[in-house]
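Input chain follows. Return structure tokens only.
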Amino acid sequence: MALKGVLMAGGRGTRLRPISYAIPKPLVPIAGIPCMEYPIRSFAQAGIDDIIVTTGYKFESLISGLIKLKHLTQSILFSVEKEPAGTAGSVKMVEGFLNDTFVVASGDVLADFPLDEAIESHRKSGKMATILLTEVDDPTQFGIVEDENNLVKRFLEKPTAAEVFTNTVNAGIYILEPEILKYIPENQSYDFAKELFPKLLREGVEINTYHGKGAWLDTGRPKELIAANRLMSAKYGTEINEANFKGKMIVKEIPTGSKFSVTGNCYIGEGVRIGENAVIENSTIYDNSSISDDCRVMDSIIFENCIIGKKSKVTKSVIMKSTSIGKNCEVVESALSSNINIQDGSRIYNVFLSSESNNNLD
């Protein structure tokens, strides 16, 4: 039988607000591509054509957003949770779909891993479960995993700095056999990392490990979303060394304007306007946005149809669609939702600002 995939997309994305007020976290674009499309592509490259998406929060938006991705070739089904079921609980709900080896991934984490070698490792191991691992700089935000001879030795979920024994963490991608489902209780919230895997270890069940090779980043907060855009712009971009562009970047359409500078790892969409002496560094500028004369946009994301007024500066911030920032403004380490008008001369530092209007990115 063919491999199947389960994509978990039921989280509320609370740390990503106000961005996740507008759109389910799995659909937030990273370098022009919805976050959950990266694991879907990894599924396709591994020959996984049948996928079931488990969802709950904003499920209507998530389903309609996936339907719009007409280039996807896989067959995608949806399982909608009335109440949060947890990572393992959501998979238990679709066990009738899972009659052979299957791969579970998170739709709201940037995971651009090739899966072929991991699947081969799983099959050679003969184990019921394989966990993909990756390394991070700050393991206190994740579940850390110590392994030996490709077998899990111990887990610790979100350790304190003093408890950290490795910077290797659970990447949230699992290759599993159907028999593992019998260890997951029905009709209750249940988690893979916090409950199921520790239970298996206590019962003497060995768990295979595979160290992932590729890009992985938890995009739970705005600063991590910005980092993810830089990462993917660098990975899939083209090295450019021209008068206005210097760096590795994705440029969908050359912006109108002249005498501007775009440097570093950037994504530039279609219909973008950049004024004279404006500087864009390591940033994402989506379609039809306007960066006025003498602006600086650094380590930031500017969504569609935004206007950044003359001599304004945006640093380490996310500005959502159709928001207008006046002249001589400064926005630092902030996230502004859609359809907001910021008055001339405003100073905004470490603010997460949401409007009552419709924030939908569609």
